Every structure is written in structure tokens, then in C-alpha cells.
Amino acid sequence: KHSEMNAAERVAQLLKDYRVVIFSKSYCPFCVKVKALFDSLHVEYKALELDLIGEDGVAIQQTLFEKTKQKTVPNVFVNGKHVGGCDATIQAHQDGRLAELLSGVQYDYDLIVIGGGSGGLAASKEAASFGKKVAVCDFVVPSPQGTTWGLGGTCVNVGCIPKKLMHKAAIIGEDLKDARAFGWDVPEQVVHNWTNMVDEIQNYVKSLNFGYRKVLKENTVTYLNAYAQFVDAHTVKVTDKKNNVQHITARDFIIAVGGRPRYPDIPGAKEYGITSDDLFSLKYHPGKCLIVGASYIALECAGFLHAVGIDCTIMVRSILLRGFDQQLAEMIGDHMMGHGMKFIRPCVPTKIEKISDGEPGFGKMDSGEIVEGEYNTILFAVGRSACTHNIGLDNIGVKLNPSNGKIIVDKEERTSVNNIYAIGDVIDGKLELTPVAIQAGKLLAQRLYKNQTVLTDYVNVPTTVFTPLEYGFVGVSEEDAVASYGKDDIEVYHSFYQPLEYALTDRDNNKCYGKLVCVKSKGERVVGFHVLGPNAGEVTQGFALGVKLGAKKSDFADLIGIHPTTAEVGLHKDSG
Ligand code: FAD
Ligand code: NDP
């Protein structure tokens, strides 16, 4: 009967008749290896030794090439699906696809990414570029004030992008004060229009939302504007805005759901307070503001709000910028105070009431003293909580750190469930920064689908706090360096400096500052780079490469500066 069939028909018949077909050659060691794999799995297979069937073997090999673009043997098929050669079959065994093919289970997608923010979008595009079938679920639960936004996650909609643009509005305002000294005939009193700024920024953000949707489409990634919850380790229930529900399946999942702002547990917080989720699209002028919190978000927001003419008070529970070098953190505080921002510290809010309906808001100082103030807007920036509480993780056993609800992952970003990974703000013990989430997403997709092994390096990640005087930083704070190496092994080089751009008006009078923290026993290797001044983010980005590559103080000293820039400033030994 075989002799009556042509090669293509014979291949088709074999694939129909047998669950596993191995097109093989009797002398080929790779064919032996692949057969041994199936033997070890106790899976029966049909092996056709092409070298033992004369001309038919040559014709079949040609047919296989036309069908699979694979010339070599072994050429393995499971349940009619082409698996590939020896390496591909072993890889499929290792990543679980072989078991899936053998069981006959078909998933809707190779990968479902939950969360279309910085990390999720990067991972999904990368996975799709390797030919994988990918879906992204992204859904924004409205803030307590009802604010929502489009595709792109925190950074694009309520984080880095609108924040940096408002910071730019602040810089323009400051520059306008200096403009006369540079010959510009600007009026003494220039007025800022809050709603115009918000409209322009929101238009730009909407163009980015549109761009992200387009990019997903171009990369053949399915975008589902729906909230995802795990039903089992391979299935999520997705619910859209209109409450339409569907169940979709995938072999792998990446959780990239990020975080949302926290509220203090005090009366009136959610009813009357706002957070960064609301601020960047606020349709009305915020008026007199109280900002609660003292980290990145609080100080950045206070900085730009003040610079666009808003009366700002910052309520600080303990220290400024926990985790950062405290010398620079206090310099930022002093600079902000010098510019008219008010600080209440140490103090926490205890109650917020609507003035027209009752008493003004209260705060309690550490000393127990009650302070009372009236504000038009209270902005909470008291940290963010990972969005892990309502996504069905308890159904599938993904382990969380009980103290903060973040997902515990290994160095490959795999959770406690084999086919489920997590990246970005939602993972425990890592930095909450956009470029970190993007890098983790890209590298994870490359490891999953391109046989790569490179892990995300979470050490020496540069960052910048966009306060009125920007603070760029890479490495460790002086406090952490002393704790790790001991005070005697640390040498600090530093300098105050005045940027040329501030010279004509003597703006901020020598308030800019640079500091290198070096380890003596490592030949003065720089372990902490800190700079306070204009464009600190741009300055730090370049120097971060040096710090990452192990630069020493002498390397910094040998590098000839670019003149005139702020980055060229020379540092001297701390005599104190
Ligand atoms: P996100 O970008 O938060 O994306 C998660 C997405 O998942 C969101 O769209 C969310 O709605 C969605 N989602 C959640 N649950 C579900 C679900 N169950 N189903 C479907 N979708 C879901 N970083 C910097 O590097 N530089 C900065 O200058 C900077 N400034 C910031 C300023 C502010 C005010 C804030 C708040 C953050 C800032 N960050 C900054 C941090 C940065 O925005 C985050 O680190 C980054 O966005 C994290 O990316 P991610 O992919 O982990 O999560
Ligand atoms: P953080 O968790 O870093 O800081 C929270 C702040 O709120 C701290 O000052 C904390 O004080 C204070 N706080 C907490 N609870 C209370 C309370 N009940 N009452 C009063 N104060 C309270 O959060 P952020 O929201 O500032 O930032 C989150 C992350 O977002 C950052 O870690 C960062 O990675 C990222 N981000 C990055 C930016 C950038 O790159 N430029 C900008 C903005 C955010 P205490 O010190 O006493 O605990």
C-alpha cells in the first residue's frame, strides 16, 4: 500500500495514525537521543528510518523539508504538530510544551501578560517578535475619585511622563524669573494656567495611549482591555468594562500589574484626598495644597506645584527620601524650604473633613501636638501597594511576601508556580522604576522564547528625583557604604558648585552639589555617585556606566571634562 502513496501522502498518513512520529536515520546519534527521551517518558512512538527505505526515504526527507523547512533528522511530530529536531524536542520537554502537545491540550495563547504598563508591554512585544502568540490584558480600576486612563500603565499615564512634563513647566517658570537678566523683556508678573497645562499634557498622553495600541497591533499582540483573574495556572477570567466575561488560556503568564497609591487609614482620606493617580489630569486648579509623604512622589509633586504658583505644605512622617543619601535628602529639603515650601515634621494626618460641612483637617505632630490646617487639596503620596489582592493568586498558589503583598520571584523572575512569572513594580525586593520593568520584561521574553540566559541586573541602577534641584544617584548612599564597608574604609569626595546658567542672577547661590563615595581598600572604587543640580538625570545616566564598570576616583579625576557643563565639576576630599 505504501508503494502506491507518494511521499506527501505517506507523511500525512503517519501523522494521522501515530501520536508521536520520529523521522530518523538508523545511524544518527541525535535520533538515538530523541528516541531515548520518549522511552524515558514511556511514550510510544513510530520511528521511520529514512536511510533504510531507499529512494522513498529521500523523497520523504524532501517532503519534510517543504513542510517544515527542516532538512535534518530527527524530525519529530507530536499529535500532528511539528516539534523540530533533537535540541528543539529536548527544549520543548524542558519548558513543558512537549507534555502539553502529548496531552493534546491546546492553549489559546503561548503567553498572556497581565498588565499593559512598562514591563508588560516590553515583554509582550519581545515575545511576539519571536513568533509567539501573545495577549495583553490591561484594565484600569478607577481611583476613589473616579480617575481612569488608557493603555501604557503608570509611567505613561500617571507617573514619569506627566510628572516630568510638569517638572518642565516648573523649570520654565524658574527660568522666566531669570529671563530679564538674559535680555528677555518679560512682564514682572507671569501667570501660569493650570488647566491649559493639564490639557496639553493629557493630549500628549492620549497620543501615547494610541501609539501603544498601534504598536501592539503591528506586533500581532492581542490587546484585551479587561481585568484578568486567575482561575487555574493556565486560565484567566477576563472581565471588560461592560462586564462581559471570557475565559482564556495560555501556557505561560507574566504578571505585570504594578501598584496603586495607598491611602492612610484615617477618616476622610478616600472621600476628600487625591493621589498622583488624580493629580496629572485634575480638571481644576488645586489651590492651596497639603502633600502628605516625603519620598520621590511627594517631593517631586510639591516641587512642581510650588513652582507653578501653588501654596504647598509637605507633611513628613519621619525623614525625607528614605533609602537615599540623607545629606542630599536634607539639602533638597533646605532648598525647597528656601524657596517657600512649608514642612510640617514629624507629623501624620489623623483626620480630614470637608470645611464647608464641618471642621478643617487635623494632623498630629510626633510630640503629640495637634496641628490644624485648611487646604483646598490634600495629596497623599504615602507609598504604593502592589495590585495582587484581587487577581486570583490564592487560587493557584503564587507566593506573596505577607508584609507588602508583593510577588516573590527567583532570579529568573519565576514565581512559586512554574509557568507563571512576574516583573516590574509588583515583585518583591526590587526597584520600582520604568527602565527596570522594561529590561526585566525584555530579558524574560528572550529567556523564555529565544534560548537566552541573560538575567536582569538589579544592581547599580541609576535614578533621579525630579525635585526643583534634581538629585541623580547611582550606587549606594554614604550611610549604606559606611554600613557595608565601615567608616574607616570610606573616602568621600565632594564639592558645592554654581552652574554657569545660574551665574547672571546668582540663583540658588552655590546650592548645587556633587559627591563620590569611594572604598579605600578597593583602590577608591566609586560605590556611590550623587549629584544635585540642573539636568542631574542626564549627568547621572552617563556616569552610571562608569560606576557599573567599576570606575575608581582616579578614573573620574583622569577624565577631562566638557566645558562649560555642570558635569565637569571637580571634587575634593571631605575634610570633615
Ligand atoms: P505599571 O506601569 O503600573 O502597569 C501595570 C498595569 O496593569 C496598569 O495599567 C494596571 O492598570 C494594569 N492592571 C493591574 N491589575 C490588572 C489586572 N488584574 N488585569 C489587567 N490589568 C491590570 N519611574 C521612573 O523610572 N522614573 C520616573 O521618573 C518615575 N516617576 C514616577 C512618578 C509617579 C507619580 C509614579 C506613581 C511612578 C513613577 N515611576 C517612575 C515609577 C514607574 O511608573 C513604575 O516603576 C512603572 O510604571 C512600573 O511598571 P509596571 O509594568 O511594573 O507597572
Ligand atoms: P515610598 O514608599 O518611596 O515613600 C512613601 C512615603 O510616604 C515615605 O516618605 C513614608 O514615610 C511616607 N508615609 C508612609 N505612610 C505614611 C502615613 N501613614 N502617613 C504619613 N506618611 C506616610 O513611595 P512613593 O509613593 O514616593 O514612591 C513609590 C515608588 O515609585 C518609589 O520607590 C520609586 O521607585 C517610584 N518613583 C520613582 C520616581 C523617579 O524615578 N523619579 C518618582 C516617583 C516614584 P516614612 O519614611 O516615615 O516611611
How would you describe what is shown here?
InterPro entries: FAD/NAD-bd_sf (IPR036188), FAD/NAD-binding_dom (IPR023753), FAD/NAD-linked_Rdtase_dimer_sf (IPR016156), GLR_AS (IPR011767), Glutaredoxin (IPR002109), Glutaredoxin_euk/vir (IPR011899), GSHR/TRXR-like (IPR046952), Pyr_nucl-diS_OxRdtase_dimer (IPR004099). GO terms for molecular function: flavin adenine dinucleotide binding; glutathione-disulfide reductase (NADPH) activity; thioredoxin-disulfide reductase (NADPH) activity. Residues 109-441 form the FAD/NAD(P)-binding domain. The chain is of the alpha/beta class. It is built from 18 helices and 29 strands. Strands 5, 6, 7, 8, 9, 10 and 23 form a 7-stranded mixed sheet that branches. It binds flavin-adenine dinucleotide and NADPH dihydro-nicotinamide-adenine-dinucleotide phosphate.
- Percent in helix: 25-40%
Name the poorly predicted regions: none
> Which oligomeric form is depicted?
single chain
Let me know the average pLDDT.
95
What is the tally of beta strands? Answer: 29
Radius of gyration: 30 Å
Largest sheet: 7 strands, mixed
The count of helical stretches stands at 18
Structural class designation: alpha/beta
Cα-to-Cα separation, first versus last residue: 95 Å
Cofactors and ligands present? flavin-adenine dinucleotide, NADPH dihydro-nicotinamide-adenine-dinucleotide phosphate
Instruction: Report the portion of residues in β strands.
Output: 15-25%
Bulk shape: elongated
Keywords: Disulfide bond, Electron transport, FAD, Flavoprotein, NADP, Oxidoreductase, Redox-active center, Selenocysteine, Transport
Catalytic activity: [thioredoxin]-dithiol + NADP(+) = [thioredoxin]-disulfide + NADPH + H(+)
Family: Belongs to the class-I pyridine nucleotide-disulfide oxidoreductase family.
Pfam families: Glutaredoxin (PF00462), Pyr_redox_2 (PF07992), Pyr_redox_dim (PF02852)
